[in-house]
Each structure stands twice: as structure tokens, then as C-alpha cells.
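Run log // design_07
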């Protein structure tokens, strides 16, 4: 799904309450952030405007990728917006995207929406060619599985 001229978006209905999806997203990101065989041993979001976002991903052949940026907006349980256009302290960097993650109630479940907004059509096309839909889709599945585990633990 492409919403804007430079956007890529995935949307999933998760059969888990929004509070559990939010807790999984906020507190358990190392468990869901990357599609296998990649892993994310370091994921940090300081959930306030200007706060640091930091992810370190490790690939199966020893690849080591660090993504850093800042949080632009954080609404507890509803929406988080980050960008790699700045490092902490508002130091400008060459940008790739703005990431917008949204959580909304849907009956007893949750609508999860993740959008990557790019600065150019070229960057959007590059991200799509890298496997955006498959990768971010798998991440959403993993997030739902973690949220389901959290919710089941709460209801027992």
C-alpha cells in the first residue's frame, strides 16, 4: 500500500487489545523488530520529542547495522514518529525516512499501521526493493505474537 507520493505503509488488524500491542512494541522490541534471520539486540526509544531512537541490527553473515535518530512525536499507546534526519541533539544527518507507527482500537483488537515516509521517490523505491512489505509485514506478525503472549499472561 502506498499512501503518499513517497510513502510505504503496512496495516494489520491484530486480534489482541491495543494495550498489549503497545507494551510489546515499547518494552519488547528486541523480540520482534527484525525479520529472521536478522536480530535486533539493541532497540531504544526515549519516547519524548527530541528523544533518542537507536536500533542495532545484526545479520546472519555478521552484518552490523546501526540506525539512530530522534523521536519527533510520542503519544502513549497511540502514535510514535521517528526520523533518521537528525541525531540526538538535533544534529542534521542525511535522511532516509520518517517512521510513523500508529495503534488504534478495533473492537477487542488493534489496528496497527506502520508508515515509512521518504524524502524522494528514489528513496521510496529503494526501500520497497529492499523488501519493505515482506519485512515490515513479518515484523508486524512477530509484534502480534509478542503482544498475544503478553495479553495471555495478563489474563491468566
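design_07 sequence
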Amino acid at each position: 500500500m502506498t499512501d503518499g507520493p513517497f510513502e510505504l505503509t503496512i496495516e494489520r488488524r491484530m486480534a489482541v487489545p491495543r494495550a498489549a500491542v503497545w507494551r510489546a512494541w515499547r518494552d519488547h522490541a528486541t523480540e520482534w523488530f527484525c525479520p529472521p534471520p536478522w536480530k535486533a539486540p539493541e532497540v531504544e526509544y526515549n519516547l519524548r520529542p527530541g528523544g533518542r531512537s537507536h536500533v542495532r541490527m545484526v545479520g546472519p553473515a555478521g552484518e552490523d547495522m546501526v540506525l539512530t535518530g530522534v523521536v519527533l512525536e510520542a503519544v502513549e499507546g497511540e502514535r510514535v514518529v521517528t526520523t533518521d534526519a537528525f541525531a540526538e541533539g538535533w544534529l542534521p544527518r542525511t535522511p532516509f525516512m520518517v517512521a510513523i507507527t500508529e495503534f488504534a482500537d478495533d473492537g477487542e483488537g488493534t489496528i496497527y499501521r506502520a508508515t515509512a515516509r521518504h524524502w524522494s521517490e528514489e528513496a521510496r523505491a529503494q526501500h520497497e526493493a529492499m523488501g519493505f512489505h515482506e519485512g515490515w509485514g513479518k515484523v508486524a506478525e512477530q509484534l502480534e505474537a509478542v503482544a498475544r503472549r503478553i495479553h495471555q499472561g495478563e489474563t491468566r
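Strands lie at 7-14, 39-45, 52-58, 64-75, 79-83, 86-87, 91-92, 97-106, 109-118.
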